Amino acid sequence: MTPNDLLLAFYGDDFTGSTDVLEILERAGIRTALFIEPPTADDLARFPHIRAFGIAGMTRAMTPAQMETALRPAFEMLKNTGARHIHYKVCSTFDSSHAIGSIGKAIDIGAEVFDPKFISLVVAAPSLGRYCAFGNLFARMGIGSNGHIHRLDRHPSMSKHPTTPADESDLRLHLSKQTQKSCGLIDILQIEKPHEETAASLASIFKENDIVLFDALYEHQMPGIGALIDPYGNRESPHFSVGSSGVEMALTGLWNAEGITQKRTQWPKPGNASPLLVVSGSCSPVTARQIDYALAHGFEEITLDTPAIAAGTHDTAFLSEVEKAVRLIKNGKNTIIHTARSTQDERFIEANNILKNKGLSSIEIQSLTSSLYGHVLGQIARQVIATIPVQRLIIAGGDTSGVVARALGIKAVEMIAPLFPGAPLCRAFAPESPADGLEVNFKGGQVGGEEYFEVAANGR
């Protein structure tokens, strides 16, 4: 299906998580393209230089029935690419439940399509502040920041997630609520043993378990995990893994060490791109602090009337917001358009109450608002960049980013240069759209320090 010997192909459960994988692969010297929809042979032929590719999905905000419809044909397509490894990429904080974004459902579908000897589960990503010990997940507050490390069920943000609050840090127990498949563990003590001994333990464990979870605390442990799982993947029978970008950290660490790939160290300098346009559908406290910092350092904001959007009473063309954004950008102002600062924002609370009064469940509200707000932000951004030239666009919010990208007409992105850990600067491929060639950065809710938007404008 593709002219190149593909090392890996992946399906991301949201857009920002997918660009995280894109960055890991590119840093390892593996040219990669990220598509919005499963690519055709013609789509792949437009990127003849790649040795990996991804599909930026939106399954984190889907019900199991919706996931079945989206994932099964995508997995079938991935199986036929000849890639040695197939990865279902999930958030490094394992956001999911039995009712929405079910990782267990993705595992069940993947097991049927790929029929692997076992499914690797790698969630730890030490360079992103994600650690797994004796099956329990720990996460730093924020990615690329100096925040404190918390057990997942005590994490200030993830334990209070509006849709999938983390109430269990043991990933095996968490996963048992989503699939009946058994999960074994290569724990942190086994990870430190000689490779031959750990490999023998792995072979013993997957005889009795469908899934094997790998602990990790340190970056130096990741290539060892790669060495354990790499032999199980080949062009005829790809190995199926689930997890964070720790999967790529493990495999590329091994491939770089073995000389299969060569780590890339030279990148173009992005440079200043003010005035910057930011559209945010994130409700994370991390993003809230970033917006506060930006406003204190000269940024301007446009606060969307989310209750009116939820009620369906807002001007559907959003002319006043577009006109204000164009005016600010013409005056050289970095501009942030956002739906809410956090889950404590009065707009967020009022909009959710409006939808609850319509009889919607919390899961239905999450799915609807991701789509609704993402479409609105994308529509506004598209009108703005069609009216006035903008060099760089930041899209914040994992659940809304995919919808924004689709509204902008983006078909694929390639990485330009690193900007923040887990959130590279990319170039949009968007034929017949004003977004074609645009520099775009997708920011997950937990990503970055408080100066994020200022740094993004300056391109440091």
Can you tell me about this structure?
This protein folds into two domains: 251 residues, Rossmann fold, CATH 3.40.50.10840; 182 residues, 3-Layer(aba) Sandwich (Molybdenum Cofactor Biosythetic Enzyme, Chain A). Strand 2, helix 2 and strand 3 form a beta-alpha-beta unit. A 15-stranded mixed β-sheet has the order 9-10-5-11-4-1-3-2-16-17-18-15-12-14-13, sandwiched between helices. Strands 6-7-8 form a three-stranded antiparallel β-sheet, with no helix packed on it. With 460 residues, the protein is of the alpha/beta class. Helix 12 crosses helix 14 and helix 14 crosses helix 15. The longest helix has 26 residues. The protein contains 16 helices and 18 strands.
* Measured distance between first and last alpha carbons: 38 Å
| Major sheet description | 15 strands, mixed
Structural class: alpha/beta
Please tell me how large the radius of gyration is.
21 Å
Trace the largest sheet across and list its strands: 9-10-5-11-4-1-3-2-16-17-18-15-12-14-13
Count of beta strands: 18
CATH topology-level fold name of the largest domain: Rossmann fold
